[in-house]
Amino acid sequence: MKFSIIIPTLNEEKTIASCLLALQPLRSNCEIIIVDATSGQSNINYPHAHLADKIIYSAKGRSRQMNVGASHAGGDILIFLHADTYLPEHALQLIEQQLSNGKQWGRFDIQLSGDHVMLNVIAWMMNLRSRLTGIATGDQVIFVTQAAFAAVGQYPEIALMEDIAISKALKKISPPLCLSAKVTSSGRRWERYGLYRTILLMWSLRLRYFFGADPQLLAALYSRGQFWKP
């Protein structure tokens, strides 16, 4: 199998270099595609361009950027990676060995970087919820076959909750492969807005999305760490 790792970026100058450096040992069997929404400049000006195989510019919007990256991907398996998230050791081998028995997509368990002990509890809750519901979050690094991604019509281009939406669509094709190997994702949002406040905010946003709230409004609340009018 060949893999395509797609990284949507927006103002990630402080994190992208370490993210790309961590991926270099994988390049023999995968391509690294950055889809940047920071500027419309030529990709020749992109910092650390030599650490990626393709640099693509796109309009802002994570789901839109990931779809653009997928349209330029040549891999059999697409891996959607956030710029502040790191794959576990032997991630590609784990996917290739276990993405079988009719399963077409999946995600990893997650651990959150940071000093607060509650970050471990939050990560455990995220992993448990995902196993019970079959819904993956983008922070858990969603991977999917090209065929399944095309079958569900790619990510819905909504401002937030695109990971929930595509998980629901992919579940109709196959149950997810929930790998216990852990990706490491930044706990910066949790620490910035407060752990308990962020837990309540995320549950509030998910509940409102379930009842049909506009993802554009939810994205505005999410970006500001607010419960009500942005």
From TrEMBL:
Pfam families: Glycos_transf_2. Keywords: Cell membrane, Glycosyltransferase, Membrane, Transferase. Residues 4-101 form the Glycosyltransferase 2-like domain. It is found in: Cell membrane. InterPro entries: Glyco_trans_2-like, Nucleotide-diphossugar_trans, Trfase_2_rSAM/seldom_assoc. GO terms for molecular function: glycosyltransferase activity. GO terms for cellular component: plasma membrane. Its main location: membrane. PANTHER family: GLYCOSYLTRANSFERASE, GLYCOSYLTRANSFERASE 2-LIKE DOMAIN-CONTAINING PROTEIN. This is RSAM/selenodomain-associated transferase 2. It comes from Methylobacter tundripaludum.
